[in-house]
Structure formats: structure tokens, C-alpha cells
Amino acid sequence: MGVVAVPSLPKQSHLYMAADEVINSLLDLRPEMWGLPPFEDWIQGTLPIEPWHIGGAVIKGFGRGSKILGIPTANLSTQGYSALLSEHPSGVYLGWAGLSTRGVYKVVMSIGWNPYFNNTEKTIEPWLLHEFDGDFYGEELRLAIVGYIRPETNFPSLESLVAKIHEDGRIAERALDLPLYSKFRDDPYLKGSAL
């Protein structure tokens, strides 16, 4: 018999040494590791979830996305979203992003503590899968999150982190073309007409 632990507090996995596996959320459970049949609801490396929305003005982040990683992110403030963020585990998600003056784009997004950089605060870091001319600080960004890709994890090197982020982007890019996800591109929330 094996024991799987799901800590209720972030950064507490060290307290579960007796567990055979410590996972971030039940989204990360892999029954095949325990001799059980795998879940059949994963589609092209993604898990469909009940869509949820978050939005706000794009803020300046730590400056790591563009400068260090070469992956520009459109950061959102977590102020006012603590209840919403506590409902959704840290990890990498996919969905659609509506920019008030530019349109709707595919997005892959990290929510979490960014263990490689040892953040002390949970962050929301969407990467819009589109090439933009310049930044859009202060613009209204609305997100419709429709799927889950993987748990937040630490990486042994900056190169392995960047490679995994690019892989996440490729997974999201392909999956969002599926009818299951593409239908959410027209979500009224993205255009600012509904909350």
C-alpha cells in the first residue's frame, strides 16, 4: 500500500516524509504509478477544467520573463484574487487572453511560487503566444483559463526551465486548436462584456 500526500499549505512538502509521493493537487495524481488504470480525460497533454476567469491591468513583474528567460509574460497583480487563487493549485494552465485594444490570443500561464526563483509570493504570469511590438503595461488583460498542463516544479538549471516553458507553450498552442478549447475563444468575458 502506498501513501500519497496533498499538503494544504504551499512549500510544506518536507513535512510529509512518510508519504511515498507528495503532489501539489489531485490534478497531479497519476493512478498508473500505483498499478491502477490511467485517467482517460487527459487530451494532448492537457486536462480540461471548468473554465474560470481572472483579469486586470498588466503590471511590471520581476523582469525575468523577457530579460532572463526570453519569454515575455504579461503579469497580473494578485491583489483581490487571494480567494480565487486558493481554489486553483499552483501549476501551468492554458486558455485565452483578451487584451482591451488588441484582440484575443492563446495563452499559457503559470500560477505559483516559481520555485527556481524562490518567490515569497504567489504570482500569475501569463505568456501570450503571439509576437507583439512593444509592451502593454497598464492595458486591461482578461483571461479565460480552460485547461491544466502540469504541476509547478523546480528545475536544476535555467536552461531546463526555459526548455520546459517552451514545451508548455507548444502543448497549449496545439491543444487550443481543438474544438473542446477553441470554442472559448469567443467567451464574452475576454472582450470585456461580462464578468
Automatic annotation (TrEMBL):
Swiss-Prot/TrEMBL keywords: ATP-binding, Flavoprotein, FMN, Kinase, Nucleotide-binding, Transferase
| Record-linked InterPro entries | Riboflavin_kinase, Riboflavin_kinase_bac/euk, Riboflavin_kinase_dom_sf
Q: What's one GO BP annotation on this UniProt entry?
A: riboflavin biosynthetic process
Q: Does the keyword Transport apply?
A: no
What's the Enzyme Commission number for this chain?
A: 2.7.1.26
- Give start and end of each Riboflavin kinase domain: 47-177
Question: What is the protein name stated in its UniProt record?
Answer: riboflavin kinase
Originating species? Rhizophora mucronata
